[in-house]
Amino acid sequence: MLGLRIKELFRGNDLGTEFYEELEDLLIEGDVGASTAVRLVEKLREEVKKQGIRTREDALRVFKQHIRSLLPCASLPLRRDTLNVFLILGVNGVGKTTTIAKLAYHYRMVEGVKGIVFAAADTFRAGAIAQIDTLADRLQVRVVKQLPGSDPGAVIYDALESAKAKGETLLLADTAGRMHNRTNLLRELQKIDKVITGRIDSDAYRKILILDAVTGQNGLQQAKIFHEAVKIDSIILTKWDGTAKGGIVLAIGGELGIPISFLGVGEKPTDLKPFDPDSFVENLLEGF
Fold first, then answer.
1. Structural domain boundaries of the chain?
2. What does the alpha-carbon distance between residue 189 and residue 62 come to, in Å, rounded to a whole number?
3. What is the CATH number of domain 84-275?
4. What SS3 string covers 206-229?
């Protein structure tokens, strides 16, 4: 595994040019991205020189500190005195709808939240409404929906008005992710964002991007596109089951500075874990 190769690199003796070049290559291979990899290696080289470090073991300690600095994280606390909205974004296939179910389970069972509702605003993808209906039925969560092909903004509006009228606490809104028609999709998301912004307090509204952890640099490009369109507040990484290299986390932190809130580690409703950057750094080299 790539992480073992990086660990092995730090077990050597000298800290010459070849060491830094090999570390940079390994980072890029691990989906960190060229610019972030170069920046990490340059910072390490500068700190090694500044501190007079002579062993790779001491260099590894500094390297871990630099990695940690690239890992912003954010929990997603709710206001209990008003309706909170999580707008769930991402391309098709990353696990948006199943993550919505996991978030509902987490906030009900861990945070003790009552009054959770789904908005089926992915009216484009075949089967999307049926899928969220099925998950909602299992979790006994109410769904606000319209017919396939309906205006997603109208679905969101109805969901907001309904949830407010019923005094509910958390609205989890599914959205489309058809990147083959990117211009129309982003325009649609901006419209939905405007509908929510005009009706929900800013500190009770979060735009959350779902990324597949195994997509590597494609995930970074997706984050850039969605962030430019609606300014992402937080990221949840799905399919974090050991096949992901891990570098995408550093790439997102280094390039965009968007905090990560959860990792999806399986298919069950309980398989959503709060992101712990310190544990991530400690485990990174095992599964990088």
1. 2-69, 84-275
2. 41
3. 3.40.50.300
4. EEEEEEEHHHCHHHHHHHHHHHHH
